[in-house]
Design a protein that fits this description.
single chain; 139 residues; Arc Repressor Mutant, subunit A; 3-stranded mixed β-sheet; two-stranded antiparallel ribbon; 5 helices; binds zinc ion; binds manganese (II) ion
Length: 139
């Protein structure tokens, strides 16, 4: 992680423990929208003393600081995204993968909202990815 970034995190009043840094780095290098469990399982071998609560609490802090976004697509499992630039998602109902949709051009704002001030919006497309679609076809 570079100096400028570290400085930026410190400017947010974020205490940077090695575990917090590892969680941040893991998220920044990962576009799979991992859950808290995924992050915990990936980092546990490097931080044997790290508890699941630490991961969970760190994620809450990162969300609060705006460094990470929470994605509530699966009802029982929050997923996390360090790519905070506005974008949309596709959720595969087969393998549960979430992919980023960065092409915002063809999404129209509903006319019901014409008098509202929109600050952000996020579209979630649901369905089956090509692999899952093929598997379903073969059943
Ligand atoms: Zn799939
Ligand atoms: Mn995303």
């Amino acid at each position: 992680m570079n100096e400028a970034k570290l400085k930026f995190y410190k400017s947010l009043g974020l205490k940077l423990t090695p575990q917090r840094l590892a969680i941040l780095e893991y998220l920044e290098n990962n576009r799979s929208h991992p859950s808290a469990e995924d992050i915990y399982n990936a980092l546990k071998p490097h931080f044997p003393s790290m508890s699941f609560a630490t991961v969970y609490n760190t994620l809450e802090v990162l969300v609060e600081k705006g460094l990470v976004k929470e994605i509530n697509i699966e009802s029982n499992k929050k997923r996390f995204d360090a790519f905070t630039h506005p974008h949309h998602h596709f959720f595969c109902k087969g393998c549960k993968k979430i992919i980023d949709i960065e092409n915002n051009q063809n999404i129209t704002i509903p006319k019901e909202l014409k008098d509202y001030e929109l600050t952000e919006f996020q579209v979630i497309f649901y369905g089956f990815c090509p692999e899952c679609k093929n598997k379903r076809g073969k059943r």
